[in-house]
Amino acid sequence: MNDETVTAKLANAKVLSEVNSKDYDAIFYIGGHGPVVDLAFDPVNAKLASEVRLQYLYSPMQGVSD
User: Fold this and answer.
1) Whole-angstrom Cα distance, residue 66 to residue 52?
2) What is the pLDDT of residues 26-59, one digit of tens each?
C-alpha cells in the first residue's frame, strides 16, 4: 500500500478486544462478505454488539419527557 495516511491509520486501528462499548452509541458494519464470514462467529464481536444493544434498550430516550 502506497498511501501513507491509510497505512498509518491501519497501524493504529483498535482491535475489537480494546473497544469499550460504553464509548459508542452504535456499531456500523461496512459491507462485503467479511462481516458475514468473520464477525458473525467472532465471540469478541458478539459480546461488543450485545453490550451496545443492551445500552440502547435500557437507556432513557433523549428528548422524551413524562
Assistant:
1) 25
2) 888 887 777 778 888 899 999 999 998 888 776 6
Task: Give the Cα separation of 51 and 21 in Å (integer).
Answer: 6
Cell numbers at 49, concatenated: 454488539
Q: Under 8 Å CB-to-CB from 17, ≥6 apart: which residues?
A: 44
Residue with cell 473497544: 19
φ, ψ for residue 32, nearest 5 deg: 95, 180
Place of cell 432513557: 60
pTM above 0.85, yes or no: no
